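General statements about sequence and structure are easier to judge against a single worked case. For one protein, we set the task of working out the structure tokens from the amino acid sequence alone. The sequence in question and its structure tokens are set out directly beneath this paragraph.
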Amino acid sequence: MFRYWSIIGVLRTMMLAVLVQSLMIMSPQAMAGGLVEVLPQIKPSVVAIGTYQRTRSPAFRFLGTGFAVGNGRLIATNAHVLPESLATDGMESLVIVLPGDEQTRGVREVRRVAVDRNRDLAVLRMEQGEPLPALSLARGSKPQEGQAIAFTGFPIGNALGMTPVTHRGIIAAITPIGIPQGNARDLNPALIRRLSGEVFRVYQLDATAYPGNSGSPVFDPETGEVVGVINMVFVKGTKENILSDPSGISYAIPVEHLSNLLNGL
């Protein structure tokens, strides 16, 4: 009888240990543990992108987010973040704002070296200054639906300033980038091409992004490897609603397309 109850006691102890371990794994603190460790590796590589013109007020005009790749002098972002043209006669230039606080933050001029408008990707090059720590791009196995992700960028950078902000979520679906519109007036040539055959799959995220997050690196919160690039947010109603009533649906370009663009340089 003593031996029987001893076995039962051991089994209960083992089951309790497994339960406690499971609760620790599922707790928010445990879930955030990897991200807390990874963020110091991510933030020094994330930059704000904009244009600079000394005679303008403000001199810096924020456009979106980018991040260092390759040799640390290359900056990945979205093609739609970049201006169509620069007022070169007014000495306007394309620049990045380097990571750091107000005392250490610097500005570097960059130039575009590769653009893939069909996949909304672009690569810039920083010609001067020290290279930034480049983020590692995921290779091999592709992310799966339900996988946890995080992204760091400058949401509403014009209002909130040049402090990088991190959001987290999951890959909710892997879906074609062409989103059918409810009204024919919402169609445009690029969308028509996508719906008619030029379709590639993107990550639909259950995560809230805002204007300014375009070009943000989407990464694995455990390893820090970049799996995608934020490129658009689903807007409910008008664009103004995105601030007061965000949809929580964002999209990201798979990193394999960025790797292909970099390989072509």
